[in-house]
Every structure is written in structure tokens, then in C-alpha cells.
User: Fold this.
Amino acid sequence: MTTIHAASHEQLFLPLDPEAALGAVFARVFRRLRLRPPEPAFSVEFRPFSSLRSMIRVRDYHAEVRVADLLAEAPPIVLEALAEILLAQVYRRRASQEARACYLAYISSPAVRHRADAVRRQRGRKRLLPPRGRCYDLEEIFRKLNARYFGGEIAPLRLGWSPHRSRSTLGHYDSAHGTITVSRWFDSPTMPRYLVEYLVFHEMLHIRFPVERIGHRRVVHSRAFREAEKSFPHYEKARQKLMRMARLC
Ligand SMILES: [Zn+2]
Assistant:
């Protein structure tokens, strides 16, 4: 185990804002490494990246640093090591063995890797199976529903079956990724077509009726949404069947 002997008592008095605190770390490391002046003003942002990546860009008197927010809780010594690695990179120096070992030990620790994996699953590119399944073609269903109930006004988006046969998340519209996912559980000859249609229809309504905010409350299924949902001809039948199935599992 290696350590970096750069921590000073400054760390005991870190300002509350973690981004400003990390900016101060960068400035301190800049001086410690005696890098080529002028010393830039560091502005650091934690970003919700889907991996542990970080980057730095120096222009004139300004250095923009972006660090994965996954690293926001890293111990000061790790952030100091990261600062050294990024600064060495941009000033064409070699980061010390200590800094590299310290950073690497942290990001490859089981706890951090576990968290990184969870974040990647959550934020990373959606993994969907193609819309044409074994029994049903989600794109064809979408096109027909769009023409029939939405005047063709729902812009085409990515549709796909979920990789797993989920029995808890039956369908999902993700506005961040612009996707509609239907659980692969429904791509089966034992599932009636109207049920798949209903799931796609429901998710399309989420595009037509986006989440409303009333004060701090998020209304996902507004009254208008629920009214519109009833225009689906097999609405009652589909709801009842889904409720029975949900009780089964
Ligand atoms: Zn919904």
C-alpha cells in the first residue's frame, strides 16, 4: 500500500462546497509539482458520468476540470492523487508512482467498483433487445397505435424488449434516453396481443402527458392521462389481466 505525503492540515479546513474544495486541491498540487506558470484558476465540476472518467482542459488562465460524481466521496488523498494525474497529463509530465497507485487502489476497490457498476447500469446507454421479438413487433404496434390514437404525432423513438423477463417492470418510458421498453415476458404466444398493445399505449401516453409538478409533488399519471388511457378499447380487460398476473408473481 502506498501513500502520498502531500496532505497538509489544510484538509482539516476544507470549505463546505466540495467542488471549490477540489479546486483548491488542484491549485495546491499545481504548486507542489512546480508546473509551468501561469497558474490557472481552477473550476471543478462533478458530473453525473456513467463511468469513473475525469478530464481537464487548460486554456490561458483557466482550467476546467470535470470529475465523475462517483468520485465526490473519495478520500482527500485520492482526490489529491487524481489532481496530480490530471495535471501531469495536461502539462506533459509523469505522475508519481504513488499518485497512480493510490488512485488505482481506490477505483479498483470492491466498494467503488460495485457503485460504479450500479451507476453504469442506471445511466449508461440503454440495453434493449431489438423491437421485433419472437411473437410481437413493438415497432409495428407503435406505428399502428400512433396512427390510430395519436394522429401520428408521437415522434418515432427507440423501442425494444427488455433483456430480462421482468415481472415487476412491465413497461417503461425513459425520457432521458428516448426509449420505450416492454418486458420480454410479454413476447410470448401465451400473451394476448392486446396486452402488449396496452403496455405500449400506456408508455406512449407518458410522452403525450409528461410528468406534472404540483409544488414538490410529481404527478406521473395525471387525471388527463388516466382519462386518455380509457380510450384504449381493451382497457378494462388489460388492467384486470395485468393485476391478476402481478398477483401471481
Ligand atoms: Zn405509467
